[in-house]
Design goal:
about 15% strand; Spore Coat Polysaccharide Biosynthesis Protein SpsA, Chain A; ten-stranded mixed β-sheet; Rossmann fold; seven-stranded parallel β-sheet; about 625 residues
């Protein structure tokens, strides 16, 4: 990636103009000249080049005064490249234009309207020599797409969705269907000609068979009941739906049945596992979701058909698409919650196992699932909630929370007694349950694989202290506050210039308020490898919690020596002074940080021991534990 020397990285631009190219040397000069006419300090221009073999890169370099950022590297197609651009774009709105298109006067007239960061603004284009400018309803978009050259997407769209690159031509249509049917985003039309759209090229020469197989599914997932029925009636009336049913794969032949009954087909030769969680597994935002995502991979490797029901019913990207690519069927609000529950009820007959986490989800869904007495019930504790709550109540001296923890304890134990199997993530929690008389308890831990980021930096090449955690989880908020407000002042008295990085999604105001010249709170980052590669010490100052702490496993994956509390290291067979340092009060924790940060032989010893420390949590080991679980349930 390259930035121009004059690029101001301090001020966020209002708009990012993005162009994806490959071998576009003949077209690019005209486009750059066109965009320079409309560019202002509030607008950045980005080019994503797919490793061109002509002189495209030279042309980009020659126009550094206009192009703010550019990348030249191989990609997996146009929409993969567009997804890459989303990660580096800094604008509050994103606008995509092809190398053979060009901006019109309406573009400049549209920019002042960009005010509400949850609104998709769109206008019109010149297409086939004629104006193409009209508003679109959620139903109208089932008939035709909105040209992406007419659309100004707010950044918030790409926090929720990405282009599905499985569709080489129609990924933009797929994205627009989701956006136009998502009530989270408002749509605002302005009758302005934004650009000239050039017909032909890639989209006219590239086949996209998956689009024709799956587009009916899009509308089933996204439309409300009224619009979906209008769409079905239109398709049945034109015969297009019947044609789709009578041709191609068996999956399409069952389309009509699935749309009318919501029933999921049984895959021959496979047992079926239903997973119920709060939402689709955002594996890059919480360790619990990361564990579940890795478990799903193992379920599929065990020849299980996987059905996933997120309680919030939302199609959240990129997680939905990644699950779909693994063969996972998601039960969503199709087209509403009643339809979602109907699809679950209609599919009970094919389900062999129900893997449900959390007391609240068990309470909500078990009465439905138990209508099929043959389904084996698996209660995934994730962590024992009542243990975490009791520890928090003790730490905060909160009697109300303590009473709530005891109520949760009764709920969790009752669910465990009524389950065919109960899952814990550590042997510590398994022992706790067995002491309460619970049987059939299995340990299925977090899954970790060593991550070698080359080059591996030595002790002397690293600096800084690192913490990571999803801040929707209250123990992580408490840990960050305790670390900055009480522990680090003692460390900084000894070494005042050590930087501290507080990574993690959804930081609340009290965590954002910790930011300073020495404390960095960047919020969610899609890739945190560089922080683990370059930091010297990882810390896990958890004062309460339960279960296996994914953050410590993540530190071990990168070989990063760690200072943790006893609760943080619980259940992972870590040994003080061998593969971790453990401290539980403010002074001891600060002293441990100072010691590990400055003692190179100790740092090297712990660094070398990290691989063995996580070897018990490899996918291969956990797969063996799952095989034993399902073998026992089959008896």
């Amino acid at each position: 990636m390259a930035l121009t020397d004059s690029y101001n990285t301090d001020q966020q631009p209002v708009l990012s103009i993005i162009t994806v190219v490959r071998n576009a040397a003949k077209l690019l000069p005209q486009l750059i000249s066109n965009i320079s006419t409309y560019k202002t300090p509030q607008i950045e221009f980005i080019i994503i080049d797919g490793a061109s073999t002509d002189n495209t890169v030279e042309i980009i370099a020659q126009n550094a005064s206009v192009i703010d950022q550019w990348v030249s590297e191989p990609d997996k197609g146009i929409y993969d490249a567009m997804n890459k651009s989303v990660k580096i774009a800094r604008g509050k709105w994103l606008y995509f234009i092809g190398a053979d298109d060009f901006l019109k006067e309406g573009f400049a007239q549209m920019v002042p309207f960009l005010k509400d960061e949850n609104t998709i603004y769109y206008g019109g284009v010149i297409f086939n020599g004629k104006p193409y400018s009209k508003p679109y309803s959620t139903y109208k978009i089932t008939k035709e797409n909105v040209c992406h050259q007419a659309i100004f997407y707010p950044r918030t769209v790409f926090s929720k969705y990405l282009y599905d690159s499985r569709y080489p031509v129609f990924a933009d249509y797929h994205l627009n269907v989701r956006c136009w049917t998502d009530t989270e985003f408002k749509k605002e039309f302005h009758d302005l000609i934004v650009a000239h759209f050039t017909e032909g090229g890639y989209s006219h020469t590239t086949p996209d068979p998956l689009y024709y197989q799956e587009k009916h599914e899009w509308f089933k997932q996204c439309l409300n009941t009224k619009d979906y029925l209008r769409y079905l009636n239109r398709m049945l009336g034109t015969g297009k739906l019947a044609k789709a049913l009578l041709s191609g794969s068996g999956r399409k032949q069952h389309f009509y049945q699935r749309h009318l009954t919501g029933k999921i087909e049984k895959q021959p030769g496979k047992k079926t596992i239903l997973i119920i969680e709060d939402n689709l597994p955002a594996y890059d935002k919480s360790s619990g979701a990361q564990r579940l995502f890795e478990l799903i991979k193992l379920f599929t490797s065990l020849n299980l058909q996987v059905i996933y029901l997120p309680d919030d019913g939302q199609l959240t990207e990129p997680y939905y698409t990644e699950l779909q690519s693994m063969g996972v069927i998601s039960i969503l609000h199709r087209p509403n919650r009643k339809a979602m529950l109907r699809q679950l009820k209609n599919s009970l007959s094919i389900i062999d196992y129900a893997w449900i986490s959390r007391p609240s989800l068990n309470k909500k869904y078990r009465p439905v699932i138990c209508k099929n007495k043959n389904i084996r019930l698996i209660f995934d504790t994730v962590d024992l909630h009542y243990i975490r709550m009791l520890r928090q109540a003790e730490q905060q001296q909160d009697e109300k929370l303590r009473k709530g923890a005891l109520k949760t304890k009764l709920q969790e134990l009752d669910i465990a007694r009524k389950s065919d199997a109960t899952i814990t993530v550590t042997h510590t929690e398994k022992n706790i349950l067995e002491e309460q008389g619970i049987r059939n308890v299995y340990v299925i831990p977090n899954i970790h694989t060593p991550k070698i980021v080359q080059p591996v930096l030595s002790f002397g090449e690293r600096q800084g202290i690192l913490f990571i955690g999803g801040y929707k989880h209250q123990p992580n908020v408490d840990a960050a506050l305790w670390l900055v407000q009480e522990i680090m002042p003692l460390v900084w008295q000894h070494q005042k210039n050590i930087p501290l990085y507080l990574l993690g999604s959804y930081p609340p105001p009290e965590v954002n308020a910790l930011a300073s010249e020495q404390v960095f709170v960047p919020g969610y980052l899609p890739n945190v490898s560089s922080y683990f590669k370059e930091s010297r010490v990882f810390v896990a100052p958890l004062r309460y919690g339960a279960g296996m702490k994914g953050k410590i496993g993540q530190g071990l994956e990168y070989g990063l020596p760690t200072v943790s509390t006893t609760i943080g290291a619980e259940g992972m067979n870590l040994i003080h002074d061998q593969n971790v340092l453990i401290a539980d009060d403010v002074k001891d924790f600060a002293d441990a940080i100072i010691r590990l940060y400055n003692d190179e032989p100790l740092w090297n010893t712990i660094h070398a021991a990290t691989g063995e420390a996580i070897s018990a949590y490899s996918p291969e080991k956990v797969k063996q534990q799952l095989e034993q679980l399902f073998e026992d349930l089959a008896k």
